[in-house]
Design goal:
6 helices
């Protein structure tokens, strides 16, 4: 039973990272297609909403982030927030990697150093119990 719960928790953590990362990347791609937002009048605001909600990348981002939210809520029923939140920080590693290798974004060395620190933190959290409120 314990192994099953731990395995489900880790599977959902992977899903959380994938849905969160892909959702934010899709939103970024959609907003890059729309371009810089300039709101000078109410008609500009209406036009912006039409552009946003008619963009396929934006809708894929919204769908992925809704899946992230559903997975996050499910896994919170199994594990402590103090475990889940730091463990899901792996998305902070995935996004710059995708940004660099797939989107051609420049990621400065200091940013990569921060990513390495996040990796160490996620590794440390992985070695703790997912739930301190339930017997493991």
């Amino acid at each position: 039973m314990v192994l099953g719960l731990r395995l489900k928790t880790y599977i959902f953590l992977v899903l959380i990272v994938l849905f969160s990362s892909s959702g934010n990347i899709f939103l970024s791609q959609g907003m890059k297609q729309i371009g810089a937002v300039r709101i000078g009048s109410s008609s500009d605001l209406v036009r912006l909403f039409v552009e946003i909600f008619s963009n396929g990348w934006i809708w894929m981002g919204i769908a992925a982030l809704l899946l992230f939210l559903a997975c996050f809520m499910v896994v919170l029923s199994w594990a402590d927030y103090s475990f889940i939140s730091p463990a899901s920080a792996s998305s902070y590693v995935v996004v710059p990697l995708v940004g660099h290798f797939l989107l051609g974004e420049k990621v400065p060395p200091l940013h990569w150093a921060g990513i390495m620190i996040i990796c160490v933190g996620v590794g440390l959290v992985r070695h703790t119990a997912p739930s301190t409120t339930r017997e493991e």
